[in-house]
Amino acid sequence: MNNLFKRILMFFTFVPLILLFVFVFVGYGHLALQIATIVLSIGLAVETAQVFGLWLSPNSEHQPSHSSSKVSRLFAIFLLSASPLVLKILENLEVIGNNWSIAVIVLEITLIFSWVVVRSQTVDAENNNAFLQAWLMIIVYPILGIYHFLLIINMHDSGLVIFAFLTIVFANDTLAYLSGILFGRNNTHVIKVSPNKSLAGFVGGLCTSIIFSAIFYFLMTDLFAPNLPLALVIGLVVGVSTILGDLFESVLKRGSGLKDSGSVIPGRGGLLDSCDSLIFSAPVFYYLHQAFNSGQVI
Prior knowledge:
Number of helices: 9
Mean pLDDT: 85
Number of strands: 0
């Protein structure tokens, strides 16, 4: 089964599932989608840990950890990724007040810094710096990205907004791939860290985001953006952030010597390989939407 066929199969598998979550399972403020998002975030955090070598022994870059160490780290990753997002869902549901989730993220970062100080007594500085980088990246990279996706879910008329955002992001990714296949044979190696990606792919993906932004503006006037130029700005900036998200993950994988972040999605690799663009673009989309439609954001 070639890679293109696998991607097409995954497209027709996940798109109906996403539509169900966005437009059918809408009770309690899209609670089903929010819970699914937390499950996704845990998987993304685990793959990020793998990219940064957290399954290796704390005293060696080449020796695998003992099973007890792996279990403790997996449990720590679960708490680190799930805790602020669960609190954010409770905030969205107005069960608790705002800012609890942000407080937990700040607390987690403080605890990581404190633990690095403790480890410095027994571990060399280079290993300790790698440890700090790995744990901080779990928070800064997938968790903050997913956190902002939960903010998007809590927007006014969020079903339509979520659909527009996901379409702009994943249409960019899909059309970039197809444009690269059709027109990119002679313009690859544009970016050193991802030599198979082509200039035609970048242009095709970016144009797709801008076109879909214009379409959504005409379909959702005064919801998506207050005027067409601002809608095009959303498409342009989100399109660029989508491409940067893909390239950033390529940088991380190349630095770790990995081809894919995992193997759970046929034709795509790991969860991180499929959601790298969403992680980068969710904060960008949220703050642009908030700036352009501030009266409609809850």
